[in-house]
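Justification of computing resources. Each target in the renewal requires a structure prediction run like the one illustrated here; the chain below, 301 residues long, is used simply to show the kind of job we budget for.
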Amino acid sequence: MKILVTDGMDKAAVEKLKAAGHEVIEEFYQIDALDDAVKNADAIIVRSATKVRRRTIDAAMETGRLKLIIRGGVGIDNIDAEYAESKGISVRNTPIASSNAVAELALAHMLAVSRFVGISNATMRNGEWNKNKYNGVEISGKTLGLIGFGRIARSLGEKAAALGMTVVYTDILGDLNYKGYEYLDLPELLKKADYISLHVPFDKNQGALLGSDEFAAMKDGVYIVNCARGGVVDEKALLDALNSGKVAGAGIDVYEEEPSANTALINHENVSVTPHIGASTKEAQKKIGMEIVTIIENGGK
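Resulting structure tokens:
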């Protein structure tokens, strides 16, 4: 197979594909170049930077050679997956490999905003010693509300419970009877949770899951964490809630626009930010690479 790797992949996985006789081309393509490249490829492996939309799929159909698109990660919203499948192109992802990495980052953001880790780090580097200003809170004894209850949410729930948190969840599938965690519908979760972490894909038809109405329904001083997808939280509504004090802090790894130009949100003193690095650990990238190799070895199944 001729395989395009457009957003990088673990080197050991690349070498394994090459050793199996595949031609692997590691290169990021701008959209016009991507449309040309897919015409002569059997498979394309992307992460979040490359978008595989209808125009690219249509370009691939000119030759009919492309048969497999793999997203190295969980979400596939950067791929028009349903359209690709309708054209006979299989779309796969790697849902298991990065779950722990993303869960750990979400937990890191929870701790960072609770204890002013980000802003105190920045102000100390400016020569400020604000010992009496940063009076944080402990996560132990608090309630964590998980919106969406897939692998990442469950991993975060286990870690949070081990640190003394009560874990509640809501999910589009309803009550999953998961031992030790209480199921709540979304309105009840918003009222009850001290911390809310999102674990859902972005649905462009639905828009933001958390907007001004949802923030108004939350506890005063709630903390928000989004390591899922940009757009599931309305950034303007979040900024308003931060400025009013309704939201005490937010940890954000994903944005409505990436790279984000929302400087007011990024630079807010009660926000902890990272540049979409949820799956960016050495361990996760190795697991993702090997999961991709397995998909290819199994003929895209």
